[in-house]
Design a protein that fits this description.
The chain has 317 residues and is of the alpha/beta class. The chain folds into two domains: 30-187, serine acetyltransferase, domain 1, CATH 1.10.3130; 194-235 and 242-292, UDP N-Acetylglucosamine Acyltransferase, domain 1 (3 Solenoid), CATH 2.160.10. Helices cover 39% and strands 9% of the residues. It contains seven helices and 14 strands. The protein has a five-stranded parallel β-sheet. 29% of the residues are buried. The model has no long low-confidence stretch (mean pLDDT 90).
Length: 317
């Protein structure tokens, strides 16, 4: 039985609903379903298991078992991701189709999944190279398996390569949802639009930010707290942001950027260059260059122990 008693929230609803009258897309729920962040999180774990079988502890006794597991895992990922992409296109509705006209978006999602599965071998090769680069670059790593299972940089790059592929296919929402879920899990914020070459090593990773139009070459190393950001946001004659313009740095091959360095704008850091910690760079840097802060002055002095402090070794009477 349903109660005829009015909700205690009724006095607040009329005023609250008026907040939905403005700002258009800010009322994002609308009347069409959207992709689910919860589903995306689950899909990410399934993708990681597909890419690195056994990562979650699943035991495979022989090649036949592996093949069966891969077929099952691939089908699960493909179906779930295809549905989320369909919801994204259906909600964004770039063709302006009326409700119920779903077939073009289902076809788009299906075709994109097929392209992703075709590209998966080459994408996985790059992911394996990233895991190897983490092992080669960190003397604390005991094995490549350790970097795959434990290193946040490897996890972030693995999912970025999937998100970037979907971004290039103009899939709405889902690439950014993938990247933001990984951002939450690892502390590494890579926009799916960023173009990243082979064998990138992100050490530690916490606080790393890589903007949408960043371009990173091969065998680059980036340490925690590094920002590849935009210096300013160009606007058109009406004062609106010009989107899609190149506004983030380019790092050429074999560049190393140490902790907390901030690189801003459409600049180029030449190959083999080393960027030291805590620098702020707004201009291009030539190849084969070392950039670092001047050593700060360190002051060391003795301080008197306050009289009220009792040493732990002192006996308390």
């Amino acid at each position: 039985m349903t109660s005829d008693k009015p909700s205690p929230m009724e006095p607040f609803i009329d005023a609250y609903m008026k907040s939905f009258d403005r700002y258009g897309q800010a009322n994002f729920i609308g009347f069409r379903p959207i992709p689910s962040m919860g589903e995306i999180e689950s899909i990410i774990e399934d993708i990681l298991e597909l890419l690195f079988p056994g990562r979650s502890g699943t035991l495979m006794t022989d090649e036949s078992t592996l093949r069966t597991m891969l077929c099952t895992s691939m089908e699960k990922v493909a179906n779930a991701l295809e549905h989320q992409m369909f919801l994204a296109w259906y909600h964004e509705n770039p063709f302006g189709l009326p409700d119920g006209e779903e077939h073009p978006y289902r076809r788009l999602a299906s075709e994109t999944i097929t392209r992703l599965l075709d590209a998966l071998p080459s994408l996985r090769t790059m992911m394996k190279e990233d895991a190897r680069a983490a092992f080669d670059g960190d003397p604390a790593a005991t094995s490549i398996r350790e970097t795959i299972i434990c290193y946040p940089g490897v996890k972030a790059l693995t999912m970025h390569r999937i998100a970037h592929f979907l971004y290039e296919k103009s899939v709405p929402l889902v690439p950014r949802m993938l990247s933001e879920t990984i951002h939450k899990q690892t502390g590494i914020d890579i926009h799916p639009g960023a173009t990243i070459g082979r064998c990138l090593f992100i050490d530690h990773g916490t606080g790393v930010v890589i903007g949408e139009t960043s371009v990173i070459g091969n065998q680059v190393k980036i340490y925690q707290g590094v920002t590849l950001g935009a210096l300013s946001f160009p606007k058109d004659a009406c004062g609106m942001l010009i989107r899609g313009a190149k506004r983030h740095p380019t790092l050429e091959n074999r560049v190393t950027v140490y902790a907390n360095a901030i690189l801003l704008g459409d600049i180029t850091i030449g190959e083999n260059t080393i960027i030291g910690s805590n620098v702020w760079i707004k201009e291009s840097i030539a190849a084969n260059t070392l950039v670092q802060m001047e050593d700060p002055k360190v002051i060391v002095r003795q301080i008197r122990k306050p009289q009220h402090v009792v040493d732990c070794d002192d006996k308390v009477q």
